[in-house]
Batch of 3 targets.
Target 1
Amino acid sequence: MRREIPLAITFVVGMTILMSYFFAGTIPGTAWNLKNLAGDITGWGVLVSAFAVLLASVNLVRIHGAAISRKRKGWYNSGILIATMVAFALVGILRKHNPANTGINDLFQNMFNNVLSPLGAAMFALLAFYIASASYRAFRARSLEASILLAAAVLVMLGRAPIGELMWGQFPVISKWLLDIPNMAGQRAIMIGAAIGGFATSMRILLGLERGHLGGE
Amino acid sequence: MTAIAGTKFLLWTIIVCGAIIVGVVQLSKSGKRIPKIRRIAGLDSIEEAIGRATEMGRPVHFTPGLSDVTAETAPQTFAALEILSYVTGLTAKYNTELIVTIRIPNVFPLAQEIVRQGYLAAGKADMFKEDTVRFLSSEQFAYAAGVMGIFHREKVASNIMMGAFWAESLLFAEAGAQIGAIQVAGTAAMAQIPFFVAACDYTLIGEELFAGGAYLSQDKVKLGSIAGQDLVKFTVMSFIVIGTLMSTWGNSALIEFMKK
């Protein structure tokens, strides 16, 4: 029963949501409207997610709480994490319950705009450097495939950069051809394969053929 | 109950494709036709990656990607969780520490249960610790920072990244490369595949990720569904060729049929 109940719930919920995309009106023999039912199920999903957030937050607090109490290396970082989490949660809850209070609204906005956003942007900015270092490793002509990759990359870069067109007017044409024909064909093949793979995986889960996510198999 | 206009073709596609997959699964289940999957280097390398971590006495890191189990990218997460099950079994076998980091709260209890059950099945329940499966943050870049921090602090020897990824894919892959970790990645996220190919030792491209569970377990049912998937792919390819030829000759009958 430990497996059968989750599998039955998956099938019923999945089929209801799926059918609501194709059919409208009430389910024959019942007074249940398919769209409303799908909407209700989506709402229950939000509730389940809220509990999952709670579970995840407890895990976070327990791991970092243990780091602080055992004074592990860098324990103060764990302290900052928990303090920030509590502060954000408190301000968020207060804001939700006092929508007219401009002070709390401003504090929440300031925390978001001046703490979270810049930190996220800083992480994102690292990508520029990482692209350079990854390209350096990938474009070393160690094999035939890597050499083809290197040649294609150089041609595309020359075609995209203004200096390339100044050097030779055909670079943008070659670059466009590489992107539109071989690259697009490869991308589409991967996309179609992945879409069908995703569909087959969904079918397996819906029909209970794939149970790995339930653990122990 | 009435059918919604413009969805008839899609509904029948799902029914036919579903029937093909279920039919081949039944054939495989009965033992009449057990399919074989070609060698997938990326999946074979998982054992090598865990073996290396065992030799070095350092942990293995696993992430099931950044997608929820309710999003359109959910199949990638489920495929990643299947691979997590296999990774847990191997780490239990070799007594190697496993660190699973999670971004999506909904995925957290699933991953925790998979790892706990995996250790239990291997008779090593004591290997499961509070911090084996770690929820880091639901914020994309906060999660990325957390993972990169773990790489450097805990000096992971192997990094396995499976599932749906976005801009953080290269952050993970480069941070892993910096510490000299052997890296195996797999995703169907088109824009991230080049980053993984460039920065990782092995990459599962697109549908290879979805074949992971079947390939690693060699389960007849799962192998059957992969063979069914290939038949569906063949059918889709036939439609593409026929549709292209018909459109080239000015016949739009297939396009109109698909719009129904």
Target 2
Amino acid sequence: MKSHLLLMALFAFFVSLVFAVIAKDEPRDQARLGGMMFGGFMLAAAVLGWFMYPFPL
Amino acid sequence: MSDKLSPVPATTAERSQSGGLVLLCLASWVVPGAGHLWLGRRQKGLIFLVALPLMFAIGLALEGRLFPFQLADMLVCLEAFAELGIGAAYFAGSALGLGAGDVRAVTYEYGNAFLIVAGLLNLLVVIDAYDVAKGRK
């Protein structure tokens, strides 16, 4: 597997999962926090990707 | 009258509790999730037990490197400490000759990120198990 996007999504999934399970006790809260964190990771990556689009100048 | 309290020697129960905590943290470090399973948090323990070693294994599969403890290079030493956070899997990987790391591989940096972060996340899990045992959570 060499797709950067897939690897980044996989990494974001694991980190979100572990953080959510540490931070929350109820499965419903864990799913909500984990989903939000995963979405945040992916959104941040997309936004940063667009900001980096002009580089190298 | 002095406000200072005189030190009270630890009782046998307190000493045995602190010994249990050390054992719990050690178990939680060696096997991710073991501390939570020990404390009866089965759902959390099983998730850590699957997710963290899997993350570490993916890091190895992506040609990541198990960094050696080189005191001459502080950054490499810090990376080794972070990877050591995963516990037994680090030693198993080293013993099996995995984690040589191929810097030419496209996925080399991703592999390192998976290995290092898996170790650091397990250290957070150990701290969480400690907090649960102390009744803070």
Target 3
Amino acid sequence: MQATPQEYQFHQRLRARGDPIAFAELAEWLYDALVQDVSKRAGYQADPILVEEAVGQALLDYHDKPEGYDPGRMSLLGYLVMSAYRDFQNAFAREQRVQAHQVSLFDLALQEDEGAGSLENLDDQLQIEELWAVIDEMFPDPVERGIVELIIHHVHAPEPYIHLLHLDELPSNEQIRLAKLAQYRIARRLRRNLTRWLTRTGEEAQ
Amino acid sequence: MKHYKPSLDRLAQLAQERPNLLAGPLQLYKEQEGLDDQQLATVLGCELEAIPRLALCERPRPAPHFREDVEHIAAYIHADMLQLAMVIRAAESREALSHRYEAARPTLLAARDQDESEEPQAPDIAASEYESSDGSSR
């Protein structure tokens, strides 16, 4: 299916450059539908943050290079879903690799916190210490550091985040919106920095 | 964290890395002014929901298009045109200053290293402690 007339119009506006609101309007129009379609493809168990990140990347890549899309070949929505889903799959595979490593490190770190005894593997212990040092460096702000700890301890309820962020005075929908946004931002920074760190330590170990 | 709902806020966050969009300079402006989205919306005379849409707009082109582009953006987010022009100008100046500062940083650090190297030499043990506190051996 080719681009719809509305998609074609957006495409022309983006290609022409110089229309300051074309991309914002396109995003406003397609974002929810894209997230929904990519979530459906990825399965409803998929991490919604990863899905949204993939959709965001696909939209921004299209913004940067609209000429990569041929409106005569397929619809813009289809093109962006395809591109976002590909990004999602890559991110998911990367995430799986990182998590496999990360979970074992955090589990060891938590055991250590609970005084479960010395770790047999010195390399792991050194890596955990290094990991927390890296986290300390990444998040010097005590509030952000507190959110990191909630994320690491898999706290899903919004209340601890709201409390930590001092949002208690705000209306409850605003509390939840800001708490989710903060959690999203910090989880994203954490994931990105840890991926970088784990990749670097992996390369050094080889 | 149930009731997950897609949000343009997240796209606006990703867009901060795109130099052609307003997301980056606006974020810097908010950080430096200590404003949250609600306060920025009040300054601009628009709804809170308009802020991520503003972040996804292209930066206005320089004169002679600047006014035309700002008018276009202001109409899109239903904001006060003059306030928007002032915020965009301020955001871009701050960004330019911060880039200049970043560019000057290696020189400043080099100058500091130079000063340190001119200090009397510390005993070996102190030098190794300095290395570890500097993070290089962590």
